Amino acid sequence: xxxxxxxxxxxxxxxxxxxxxxxxxxxxxxxxxxxxxxxxxxxxxxxxxxxxxxxxxxxxxxxxxxxxxxxxxxxxxxxxxxxxxxxxxxxxxxxxxxxxxxxxxxxxxxxxxxxxxxxxxxxxxxxxxxxxxxxxxxxxxxxxxxxxxxxxxxxxxxxxxxxxxxxxxxxxxxxxxxxxxxxxxxxxxxxxxxxxxxxxxxxxxxxxxxxxxxxxxxxxxxxxxxxx
Length: 228
Known about the structure:
By secondary structure, this protein is mainly β. The protein is 6% helix and 36% strand. The chain contains 3 helices and 14 strands. Strands 1, 2, 4, 9, 10, 11, 13 and 14 form an 8-stranded mixed beta sheet that branches. The protein has a 6-stranded antiparallel beta sheet with strand order 3-12-5-6-7-8. The two termini are 22 Å apart.
């Protein structure tokens, strides 16, 4: 986000990206993130650092009927990738270790692949079921949550990019922003990040503060390949 744009509550900009706190509420229509008719075959290129151990979703795409179509969840010791309602695969990988992690997640046909170490390490997982071919253009994209009442992902995001092609998967480090390539050694000059902010007494789980983001507001955080 630039200084001229309104920063959502609970989101803190820093030099290389943004930090999500437990008060963040970021949601946008799927149509503002991906073009209509977008396939569930896609590649995610991520650079992030978790600040709190929990079971939060990094993001979730839900249909107009509130069915989960796509999502990534970080639980201690595992990454879970959802490609349909109650349909998922998991990888043994711990994001909640206080370190920066650069990775790519490729969803292609009946296979999900996790790439790490700039493509040197890769793990495949078979879906064993037929997934939805297209995302609901009338659905919603939630960042850091599965729904407005679930636990919030808390951490720093340097890069979150969506690509329609798997060509970038094996060499995803070539697609990392310059400031994210040094993520393992770079630390933002900020106060201690745990806890990031005191719990907001006015924001109770029963009355979440919903923030609707336009494409402009989310564009610097989630970017799609120019070919889209």
